[in-house]
Design goal:
The chain is mostly helical and about 80 residues long. The chain is built from three helices and no strands.
Length: about 80
Amino acid sequence: MPLDLMEPLFLVLGFLVFLASLTMFIIRTKNIQAVLKFWQADIAFTHKEFVINRIGITIMVMGIVLRFFNAWAIA
């Protein structure tokens, strides 16, 4: 699979995993305000939600790194 296709795949997949962790939090707590006001540090994730959240962020960062690598490889 070429790196050009992996970049958006990682970004979208990472975002979906990140959203899954937020959805798990909302279903558990019924507190959508904590997610909408994410800058106030009201989100208390369970261990499972936290791990899934960080996996999603890591996958998105990998997509961003691939974007830089692709731009560098082309130049």
